[in-house]
Amino acid sequence: MNRTTFLLCLALSAVGLFVAPLLILAAPMEPTMGFVQRIFYYHVPCAWLTFLAVFLCAAGSAAYLFARSERGEALAAAAAELTVVFGICVLVTGPLWARKAWGAWWVWKDVRLMTTLLLWFIFVAYLFVRRFGGPGSARLAAGLALFAAADVPIIYTSVFFWRTQHPKATVVRTLDPKMMPAFFTSLAVFTAFFVALLAARYALERSRQRLDATWLAAEDAGLLDN
Questions:
Q1: Residue 94 located in a structural domain
Q2: Rounded to 5 degrees, what are φ and ψ at 170?
Q3: In terms of pLDDT, which residue wins out, 58 or 113?
Q4: Residue with the larger pLDDT of the pair 159 and 7
Q5: Residue-wise over 171-190: b if at least 16 C-beta within 10 A, else e?
Q6: How far is 101 from 31, CA to CA, in rounded Å?
Q7: How many angstroms from the chain centroid is the CA of residue 153?
Q8: Alpha carbon 176 to chain centroid distance?
Q9: Where are the alpha helices (H) located in the chain, listed in sequence order?
Q10: Which of 15, 28, 38, 121 to pair with 183, CA 20 to 30 A apart?
Q11: CA dist list (Å): 10 to 111, 151, 201, 213
C-alpha cells in the first residue's frame, strides 16, 4: 500500500511540477505587490502542509503514548521530519514575500511570525530528543508533539486577535477567480509530494522498528553471543 501510494503521488507530483508553474505565470498580476505575489502559490501550500504534518505527528504521538502503537510512533517520526522540511519552506518564502510587501524581511513583534518560528523550533527539538534523548526519549518527544499541536490554532487565529502585518486567513476566499486554478493546482501538487514523502519515510521507519525488534529478539535468544 505504501509503495502504491508513493508511486502514484510521485507521478502526480512530477506532472504537476510542469503544469503548476505555467498556471502560476498565466495567473493575473496582483496590482499592489506585482510579480512577487506569486510566491503566494508556494507559501500557502507549504504552510497548509506544515500544519497537516503537525497534526499527523500529534495523532501518531497520542497513539504511541496511550496505546503503545508502533505504527503511531512511526507516523509521528515521519510527520515530524516533514514539519521541519515544509516549515523551513514557509520561513524562507515568507520573508522573501515580506521584503517586497512590507519593506522588511522579518517583524519580530508580529505574533503570527513568532508563533510559526516557535513551532518550527519545537519540532527541531523533537528530532533532537528522539535522536539523542536516550531512554524515554520517544515518550518525551511525543509530549513535545502534543504541545506543539496547540500552537497551530494560535498561529491560524493570530491575525484575528492581534495587530499583525500578515494577511487575514480569509485571503484564499477573496482571490481573483482567475487565480484559483493556479492556486489549487499548486496546492494539489505540494500535497501529492507531501504524501509521497510521508509514505516513503513511514515505510523506512517501520523497517527500522522491525530491524530493532529482530535484533533484540536475537540478542535475547543468545544468537549474538560470541
A1: yes
A2: -90, 10
A3: 58
A4: 7
A5: ebeebeeebeebbbbbbbbb
A6: 12
A7: 15
A8: 27
A9: 2-26, 40-67, 70-101, 111-132, 137-149, 151-161, 180-220
A10: 121
A11: 36, 30, 13, 30
User: What total number of domains does the chain contain?
Assistant: 1
Rg of the chain (C-alpha set): 20
**Reported pTM:** 0.88
Residue 82 is classified by DSSP as H
pLDDT tens, position by position, 9-21: 888 888 988 898 8
* Structural domain harbouring 11: 2-24+37-212
Instruction: Find cell 496546492 and name the residue.
Output: 187
Residue 224 lies in a domain: no
Cell output for 93: 518564502
Query: What is the model's pLDDT at position 220?
Result: 67
Residue 63 belongs to some domain of the structure? yes
User: What span, in angstroms and rounded, lies between the C-alpha atoms of 118 and 120?
Assistant: 5
> Are 142 and 64 within 8 A, CB to CB?
yes
